[in-house]
Amino acid sequence: MSLGLKRGTVQLEPHDKQWDEAAIQTIKNLKSILGDDAVDIQHIGSTAIPAIKAKPIIDIVVGVTDFDKVMLHNEQLRQAGEIVKYVNNLAEELVDIDEMQEDSDEHIVAVANIMKQYNILMEDENLIDFSSIQTEAYKLLIEEPSILEEIQQKIKYVINRF
Q1: Contact criterion met (CB below 8 Å) for 9 and 62
Q2: In sequence order, which residues have a C-beta less than 8 Å from that of residue 105 and are 6 or more positions away?
Q3: What angle do CA 8, 13, 14 make, to 5 degrees?
Q4: Does this model's pTM top 0.85?
Q5: Residue 137 has pLDDT above 80, yes or no
Q6: Distance from chain centroid for Cα 3
Q7: How far is the C-alpha of 145 from the C-alpha of 151, rounded, in Å?
Q8: What long-range pairs does 38-46 form, CB within 8 A, spacing at least 24?
Q9: Would you say 152 and 160 are in contact if contact means Cβ atoms under 8 Å apart?
Q10: What percentage of the chain exceeds 70 in pLDDT?
Q11: Half-sphere exposure in the Cβ direction for 60 (13 Å, CA)
Q12: pLDDT band at residue 14, thresholds of 50, 70 and 90?
């Protein structure tokens, strides 16, 4: 799933079910940050309509009774966005969180703790983010060599370095 467009670009794509999943997760994140200060949060715009092509940009609207109260969460919202970017990027790598937690650099340990908590939340909610799909596929092929063998028999060019 790709989201976003370069400035000045207009591009329509067929509906992607992952847009719905991303919107649901974003709404959950916003609700956890804003709490009762948000009276309603909805996925709107063309990505919310399965029957039409859309720009790959998810629009979310937040209904509030007091905008000033929501602005009190501004720093928390900014930090959440930054943290998710880093966690998603790291989730694509095969890093060892336990090893990172033992690092002497406190910043590495902090990132490892955030990743560990993120993974716990994802597991508790029975969710998988797009960047983790690659890692899970890799783990499956390592843990189940028969599946790797079956894929290699069906697909001619599969890397055999597991």
Answers
A1: no
A2: none
A3: 165
A4: no
A5: yes
A6: 11
A7: 10
A8: 38/62, 38/63, 38/64, 38/70, 39/63, 39/64, 39/65
A9: yes
A10: 84
A11: 17
A12: very high
Measured CA to CA in angstroms, residue 143 lies from 34, 89, 123, 157 at distances of 41, 24, 19, 20
State how far the Cα of 137 lies from the Cα of 147, in Å rounded to an integer. Answer: 11
- What's the CA gap between 43 and 70, in Å, rounded? 18
Average pLDDT over the chain, rounded to whole?
81
Is pLDDT larger for residue 10 or for residue 130? 10
Amino acid, single-letter form, for residue 129: D
Q: Is pLDDT larger for residue 111 or for residue 140?
A: 140
Q: How far apart are CA 47 and CA 55, in angstroms?
A: 7
Q: Output the DSSP codes for 55-124.
A: -S--EEEEEES-HHHHHTTHHHHHHHHHHHHHHHHHHTS---HHHHHT-S-HHHHHHHHHHHHHHHHHHH
pLDDT one-digit tens code per residue, 109-120: 877 887 887 777
pLDDT in tens, 33-76: 889 988 999 998 888 999 999 888 888 888 888 878 887 887 78
CA gyration radius, the chain = 19
